[in-house]
Specification:
By secondary structure, the protein is an alpha/beta fold. It contains 13 helices and eight strands.
């Protein structure tokens, strides 16, 4: 980490997230935004939205982003970092375009961007970059100043992201009945994506079987397992598994699914499982429904004790990690050689996404990369 507390050239940080409904009347319009261009009828959207209706039509993600905003602002103030923090979403208010319009009006001209996705993939990185380019094009068409945006590097292996997850796994193990704890297995979960998207994730040199997406998750899982072993004296068996599949049945997606995995572990005589959602920054709908509701119900049906470990959320260590990432990138932009914090075998990710990184099926302009039209 750089010792500097001067974030120049950056004059703001943008928290960029997915967004979610905040009431029953928001669910269908929100899903229409998410699926825009696919021609999905309203009745189908109502069916897809049943998970949200189980929770009063409210996704927890917006509340969790507000908590993260508070944590970031507190950390920045406590450490003398004078950098305003804004928030914009892809699919619900506050919308990204509106936020960038506000930032331009406030005189912000060089913006560091933190996306609430820690890993490389089209949906977790390039799609956010495409959204940034779309919004900047709107500002340009409106005759407004177009700020430069720089997306902070992937933080999947930053200590401030990993260490809270280690604590969560250890706390979940401690919460298991004592007579099954020693034989527990760890199921590290993340969002399933099409295998074709996984294989093409990351820079071109990372493309292949699972690409950077799978490699990064496996690296984090290994770091957590080793940290748990050091602190408990037990090396727990583990596997990376997937959840929240949403695609057509004929398209191959990453497997195994968490519920199928629980059935297999139970049939093998495994006495207990800790589900660790390492692929998610906070406890949003995929965690609340797919793990806390669906997978937990499957475990109860099997008579298999399970615990679900915490996501990072607004942990102060994560807020500190964001501060370090901003200062690290600022130092690099100043021509200095910052120390880049990273655990595991893969090392720190790139600052600038190269051309061909996490490609889309249809090429679209993407900001904050080597191929950005807004450099």
């Amino acid at each position: 980490m750089s010792d500097l507390r001067e974030p120049a050239p950056y004059d703001a940080l943008l928290l960029l997230s997915f967004g979610g409904p905040e009431g029953p009347e928001d669910v269908v319009p929100f899903l229409a935004n998410v699926t825009r261009g696919r021609g999905i009828p309203e009745e189908r959207l109502k069916e897809v939205g049943k998970h949200y209706f189980l929770f009063g039509g409210v996704s927890p993600i917006n509340g969790q982003n507000r908590a993260l905003l508070d944590a970031l602002r507190k950390d920045f103030a406590d450490h003398g970092l004078d950098l305003p923090v804004y928030w914009g979403n892809r699919n619900w208010a506050p919308y990204l375009t509106d936020t960038l319009r506000e930032m331009a009006g406030d005189g912000r001209r060089r913006i560091a961007v933190l996306a609430t996705s820690a890993y490389a993939s089209y949906s977790g990185c390039r799609q956010y970059r495409e959204n940034l380019a779309e919004s900047l094009a709107v500002l340009e068409a409106e005759g407004l100043p177009v700020p430069r945006v720089d997306k902070l590097r992937h933080y999947f292996n930053h200590p401030g992201f990993v260490e809270p997850m280690v604590d969560g796994v250890i706390a979940s193990l401690a919460g298991l009945p004592e007579n099954v704890r020693a034989g527990a297995h760890l199921a590290f979960t993340t969002h399933s994506i099409p295998t074709s998207a996984a294989d093409s994730s990351g820079p071109a040199e990372a493309h292949g079987d699972g690409g950077a997406y799978v490699a990064e998750h496996l690296d984090v899982a290994r770091v957590i397992v080793e940290a748990v072993r050091e602190r408990t004296g037990v090396e727990y068996p583990w596997q990376l598994v997937y959840q929240s599949r949403s695609g057509a049945p004929h398209i191959p997606w990453l497997e195994p699914d968490i519920c199928d995995h629980l059935e297999l572990l139970h049939s093998d005589g495994v006495p207990a499982v800790v589900m660790a959602p390492i692929g998610f920054v906070s406890d949003h709908m995929e965690v609340l429904y797919d793990l806390d509701t669906e997978a937990t119900a499957k475990a109860a049906e099997l008579g298999l004790p399970v615990r679900r470990s915490a996501t990072v959320g607004a942990d102060p260590r994560f807020a500190a990690a964001v501060r370090e990432l901003v200062l690290e990138r600022a130092a690099a932009e100043q021509g200095r050689g910052p120390q880049r914090c990273a655990l595991g075998a893969l090392g720190p990710s790139h600052d600038l996404c190269p051309a061909g990184c996490c490609p889309a099926r249809t090429a679209r302009p993407a900001a904050a990369g080597a191929d950005s039209p807004y450099a």
